Amino acid sequence: MTDTRAGFVALIGEPNAGKSTLLNRMVGAKVSIVTHKVQTTRTRIRGVAIEGAAQIVFVDTPGLFSPRRRLDRAMVAAAWSGAADADIVVLLIEAHRGITEGVETILQALNERAGDRPVALAINKIDRVKPETLLQLSKDMNARFGFVETFMISAEKGHGVDRLRHWLADNLPEGPWLYPEDQIADLPLRMIAAEMTREKLTLRLHQELPYQLTVETENWEDRKDGSVRIDQLIYVARDGHKGIVLGNKGETIKAIGKAARQELEEFLDRRVHLFLQVKVRPNWLNEAERYSEMGLNFKDGDT
Predict the structure, then answer these.
(1) Which domains are present in the chain?
(2) Rounded distance between C-alpha atoms, residue 267 and residue 169, angstroms
(3) Distance CA 50, CA 27 (A)
């Protein structure tokens, strides 16, 4: 019988480095929302990939950045917590951006926090730079930290991703699998549904409301005909934000609901009846309950 392996892999990096795209590519399903806006990933979403006899459990952490508000601080704490819980850490950086100030900060923190945990480097978006630039970047990064392995990848196009997944599978601890074979994420479906709707809101309202809203799945009803009714609440901080989300004659919320419903139907492989309601909650950014819904620790946002 083949010896099985299983363990946790934390993907860390700056906002928009491509962590969610890489996770979805590895898992083969959309479990982490992907947008062009920074800071769209708030929770430590785990995706499960099978590679041979190994089960790789990915922890997709919020992007690491300089925190200012309570929500920022809680997100950064969640990112480092995810890294601390992992068997292997993968630092993802963007080839065309190189060693930014943010990357320098992460490297400094890794030197302080990594201990003897193996950390691999994945240089993403390799199609945007020349080979000599890539080689120099790899050399400079490895001079700053003792990476156990370096990978050149394009998460979006899939280049180099198989090699990274094979390496991870070979280097996880021996042991039984942690999840059933058919389970791709440990997030409850209600939270995945809320994240999908929040992605559509972020894409549609990318100029106005990146932080000022959150989505909660209030009700989930499986119907006898095989369909599901999902009721969601969109919390905004001000009355003016509610108007932006609703749009002229409700056109914006209708478009968002349609896009979210279509993606949910594809993801769940069943008919979805999605009902969205917008509520003004001025202080939701400082409510412990909202943080719990997002999988964050409210106390981590304390100064």
Answers:
(1) 5-171 (3.40.50.300), 189-301 (3.30.300.20)
(2) 26
(3) 8
pTM for the whole structure: 0.61
pLDDT in tens, the chain (303 residues): 458 999 889 888 887 788 878 887 887 765 544 444 444 444 455 678 888 899 888 875 655 445 555 555 555 555 556 566 789 989 999 999 999 988 888 888 888 777 788 999 999 999 999 999 999 999 999 999 999 999 999 999 999 999 999 999 999 999 998 877 766 555 567 788 888 898 888 888 866 554 567 888 888 888 889 898 999 998 888 888 888 888 889 999 999 999 999 988 887 778 999 999 998 887 666 656 555 555 555 565 554
For 81-115, letters b (16+ CB in 10 Å) and e give bbbeebbbbbbbbbbebeeeebbeebbebbeeebe
Q: Where are the alpha helices (DSSP H) in 13-69?
A: 19-27
Of 16, 207, 254, nearest to 124 (Cα)?
Answer: 16
Q: Sheet containing 213-222: give its strands across.
A: 213-222, 228-236, 272-280
